[in-house]
Amino acid sequence: MLIALHGIILKMPGLSRELVEHRLPIKPGFRPYKQPARHFNPDIYDRIKEEINRLLKAGFIRPYRYAEWIANIVPVEKKDSCKLRVCIDFRDLNRATPKDEYPMPMADVLIDCASGHPIISFLDGNADYNQIFMAEEDIYKTSFRSPGFLGLFECVVMTFGLKNT
To answer: CA nearest 30: which of 135, 141, 133?
Structure first.
C-alpha cells in the first residue's frame, strides 16, 4: 500500500489481516440501499477528482462495477487550507450495522499500560484508519459514487465514517 505525504510516495505497511480486519455485519431485516445521486457545484469536480485519484494511488480504494450498497461522497473543505476532504455518507450502511458493544480502551489507559517498556509502537496517526484492512467479504458494502468519474469505487481499508471504527 502506498501513501502520498507532501508529494512523496511512501510505502505504508498495513496491519496484517491475520491480526485485525474491520467487518461490517448486517442486522437481520436490512436490505442493501443505493443512495440517489447527489449533484455538486461543477467548480469543485476537479478537486474531488484529485482527491479520489490520490486515494486510488494510495490503494485505499479501488474501482467497482456492480454494487448492492451505494453511498455518496460529501466534499468538506479543510479549515486550515484550501484542500478538500472527501468523506462518504455511510448513514444507511451504519443503520444496518449492529453497534460494537466492546469499545476500545481509553487512550490514557493504553499509554499507562505501555509505560516502562523499551519499545512502544502506535498506528500512524497521520494515516487515520487506513492501516486496517476491510474484511474481503465486506468490502463491497463500502461502495460509493463520485461526481466527475464514471463508475463506482469501494474502500479496501477501514475509512472514517463507518460504524465501530
So the answer is: 141
